[in-house]
Give the backbone structure.
Amino acid sequence: MRKYIIKIIFFGGILILALGQCHKVLKFKYEDGIYGMETMYRLEDNSIDVLALGSSHSFVDINPSVLYREYGIAGFDLGGSRQPFWNSYYYLKEALKTQKPEVIILEAYAAVFSQQHGLESEIIKSNYGLNFSKDKIESLKVSTPDGKLGYLLEWVYYHNRYEEIRKADFGKYLGKESKYKDWKGHYCLFVNTEFERPVIGEVREDIRMAEKEEEYYRKIIELAKEEGIPIMVIVSPYPVYTEEDAGLLFHAQKIAEEYGVPFINYNEKYDELALDFSVDFADIGHLSYLGSEKLTMDIGDYLSENYDLDDRREDPAYLSWERNAQYYEQQVKNIEMRKITDLSQYLEQISKEREKYIVVASAYGEGKERKEFAQWLYNGNGAAGGTEDGTWILGSGEPVFYQGEEGESYYHMELEDSDLAVKGITGGERVIVNHEILYFAQPGVSICVWDTIMGEVVDSVWFNPENGWEGERNEKWK
C-alpha cells in the first residue's frame, strides 16, 4: 500500500511539473498588456518613480527611455491595448502592492470608449498578466460579459496555440534578453504616416462619458489620493481627434478639476509640442518614435517643474533604466542609418558605431564609389584585399573574414543565439542569418549589419551602380 501511495505521489508530481512547463510555453505573452505586468513584478520594490497607466496611447506614446536620459526619472509604462479604466484601476491596485511611485500618470483616452466590456483579446491582454488574487478575480468579473469567470481557466483560451508556438515561448525575456531583460513597458513604433491636422472648434460641449468608464476613472483618482500619491491626467495627441472626443475629454477634465488633479489634453497643444503631422504619427491612434520623444519631453518638463523627483542617472540601483535607454538609443541610430542611401554617408555612419556592429560586405565591379569602399575597408578597418572583388566580415571594426579567390566559399560564425553564414561561389555569395538569405553578392556594394547591442540584423542594403550607386532596400529594411 505504501509503495502504491509513493507511486501516485511520484507520478502526480511529474504530471504537475509537466503541466507547469506546458503553461509556461503555451500561455499568452503579449507585449501590449500581459508582459508589461510580468516585467513590473520583477522590479525591485519601490523602484518606479513615475507610473504611466492606460491604453496603448500610454505605453506607445510615453517613453521611459527619454524620461530617464533627459531627466533622470525612473518611469514605467503599465497598460494594455484598448484598456478601459476598470482594468487600469486593477493594474494600479496590483502595482501598489510592490511599488509606491512618486507620481502616477493616467492617460485618459479610455474616456471616449462606450463599450461595457472589451473583445476577447482585450480582456486577455488586460487580465492574464495579473498574479492570481482576489483583485484578478474582481478584474475579470468587471471585464467580462455578465461577470463570467470562465476566463480564470486560462488553458481554455491558450490550449490551441500549438501552431503559434515560437522560439520565444521557450526562453526567458520573450527569447530576446537584450531587449526585454531591462524593458520598461514602452512599445515604440518606428514608422511614420502622414495625416491632416484635425480642425476642431474652440467651444467644448460637455459630453458625459460612459457610466462604467466614469465610475472607474473616479476610482483611479480616489485610490491615488487615498495612497497619498500625486496623480496627473493626460490625453496623448492622435490625428483622428473629433468634436465628440473633445466633448468627452472635456467632461473628463471637469472631473479631474473636481478632484484638484492636473489635466492636460495634448490634442489642444499641437503647436506647443511642435507636432509635424507628416512624420510624428505612426497610425490613427499613436505617435511615432519622433512624436513620442516630443510628448515625453513636455511631460518630463512638467514633472520636473511640479514634483520633487530624484535624478537616478548616477544611481547604480537604476542601471536597468540606463541599459533600457541605451537599447532605445541604439534603435533610433539604426532607424536613422536605414534612411541613408548615399554610400559615403553610410560608411561614415557605420564607422561611428563600429564597436557595436558586425558588418558583412560584398563588393564587385569598378567606379569611384567602389574605390571609396576599398579605401574605407583598408584605411578604416585594416582589411586586406579592399581593391579586389570579394566578401568581407568586420567585427567591431576589425577584419574577421575575407573571400576573394574564385571558387566555393563557406564561413560560419555564431552571434549570441543566432547563426551567420557566407556561402556560395565567388561573385554570387549568399549572406544568411538564421536560414534567411539577406543578400546575394552582385555588382556594386552590398552590406549587411548586425548590431551586437540589439542582438539582431538591423540593415541590409545594396548600393547599385546601375542606379547611380544609390542604396536600395527591400520592404523589410525601409
